[in-house]
């Protein structure tokens, strides 16, 4: 056999193995016979693959009474709670760390200030914090990967940062650098895209293959899931919904253009509008209060005119942008994440109306707009990146490789 043929045989083995693991993950408990039927693999191959997965502790057998009576049947199910990962969110001047097991349960968290520094010092500090956290929370546990999620743009496939809004990391092969330093596979990605995937695997869009998550916080971003995968371009980020042009005479955006959606509906923009109107002498229960999104949403729900006007206008503009996304992607679910969800009763019907009036009838019929589940778990996206690497085979192979 030539080298090329050997590589091909290995590749076929990998592909078959991950196909079997995916079936057990999505359909389990499932019998070997059923796996063979659904995967079109020979029963002997299924037996061989499941034996290896059992040896690695990735799946386990469940014995139960067969529906036909008589002999007891054996089904297979995945074991997720014995495998751990660390997810790090490299936010805006802060670092959040969480240890999860693969079922999604968190076992330890840490939040640290993480100021902007020179690239080398920054990378060394990131490595040190991760290593300390792993030592404190991960010892004695089977740690299989680390994920780093961040605002900005990444090339997830190459493991490279393209742009981070707070740190000088452009062009840094972060996954490779940290992977070497920590001796673990490292996956990176944009935080909102990764959250959309987490909602698909574990949360509010679990029952649909196509969904859109729109997140309104410091900026406005979206994650589009099509056929159960993050919609992307050659591994690079897409869906920068926050920079859809809305107003030719609008405010200057961080991206350099004017009138982008996020200059109108991001948290800071709404608070700026409120403070500007209060300074003009508009009457509101917010006068004299410390302005926050929570206070603004509460005032809107209490029918304060100024707060209500600001929140309604933001919902209309978000709805306009979302109608464009619905026309382009025809999702089964639209998820909203962010402080604006506090005023859900005002915001959701307005977004809904905008989508109904501005997208194709066949695309918006029965399209629910729902609250994202993981509003408060900022590191959840990292869990999804690791789960994806496991389901798609890359991490599965690393776990199954014999240890040197
Ligand atoms: Zn912009």
Automatic annotation (TrEMBL):
Top-rank taxon, per record: Bacteria
Stated name of the protein: ROK family transcriptional regulator
Keywords: Carbohydrate metabolism, DNA-binding, Transcription, Transcription regulation
Phylogenetic placement of the source organism: Bacteria, Pseudomonadati, Pseudomonadota, Gammaproteobacteria, Aeromonadales
Keyword Nucleus: no
InterPro entries noted in UniProt: ATPase_NBD, ROK, WH-like_DNA-bd_sf, WH_DNA-bd_sf
Cross-referenced SUPFAM superfamilies: Actin-like ATPase domain, Winged helix' DNA-binding domain
UniProt keyword DNA-binding, yes or no: yes
Protein family according to the UniProt entry: Belongs to the ROK (NagC/XylR) family.
């Amino acid at each position: 056999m030539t080298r090329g043929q050997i590589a091909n045989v290995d590749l076929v083995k990998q592909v078959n193995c991950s196909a079997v693991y995916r079936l057990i993950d999505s359909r389990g408990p499932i019998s070997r016979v059923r796996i063979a039927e659904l995967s079109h693999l020979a029963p002997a191959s299924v037996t061989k693959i499941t034996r290896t997965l059992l040896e690695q502790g990735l799946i386990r057998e469940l014995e139960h009474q067969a529906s036909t009576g008589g002999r007891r049947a054996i089904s297979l199910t995945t074991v997720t709670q014995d495998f751990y990962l660390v997810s790090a969110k490299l936010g805006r001047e802060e670092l959040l760390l969480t240890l999860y097991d693969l079922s999604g349960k968190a076992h330890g968290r840490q939040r640290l200030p993480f100021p902007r520094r020179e690239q080398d010092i920054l990378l060394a500090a990131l490595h040190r914090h991760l290593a300390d956290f792993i030592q404190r929370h991960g010892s004695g546990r089977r740690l299989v990967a680390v994920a780093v999620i961040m605002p900005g743009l990444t090339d997830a496939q190459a493991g490279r940062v393209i742009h981070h809004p707070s740190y000088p990391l452009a062009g840094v092969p972060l996954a490779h650098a940290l992977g070497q330093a920590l001796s673990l596979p490292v996956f990176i990605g944009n935080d909102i895209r990764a959250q959309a995937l987490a909602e698909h695997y574990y949360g509010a869009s679990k029952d649909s293959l196509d969904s859109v998550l729109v997140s309104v916080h410091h900026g406005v971003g979206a994650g589009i899931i099509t056929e159960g995968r993050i919609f992307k371009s050659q591994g690079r980020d897409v869906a920068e919904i926050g920079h859809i042009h809305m107003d030719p005479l609008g405010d200057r955006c961080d991206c350099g253009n004017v009138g982008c959606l996020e200059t109108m509906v991001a948290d800071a923009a709404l608070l700026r509008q409120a403070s500007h109107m209060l300074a003009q002498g508009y009457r509101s229960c917010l006068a004299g209060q410390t302005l926050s999104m929570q206070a603004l949403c509460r005032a809107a729900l209490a029918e304060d005119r100024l707060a209500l006007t600001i929140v309604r206008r933001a919902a209309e503009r978000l709805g306009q942008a979302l109608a464009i996304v619905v026309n382009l992607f025809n999702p089964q679910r639209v998820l909203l994440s962010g402080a604006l969800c506090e005023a859900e009763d005002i915001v959701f019907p307005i977004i809904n109306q905008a989508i109904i009036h501005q997208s194709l009838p066949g695309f918006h019929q029965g399209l629910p707009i729902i609250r994202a589940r993981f509003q408060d778990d900022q590191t959840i996206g990292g869990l999804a990146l690791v789960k994806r690497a496991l389901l798609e085979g890359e991490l599965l192979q690393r776990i199954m490789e014999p240890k040197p």
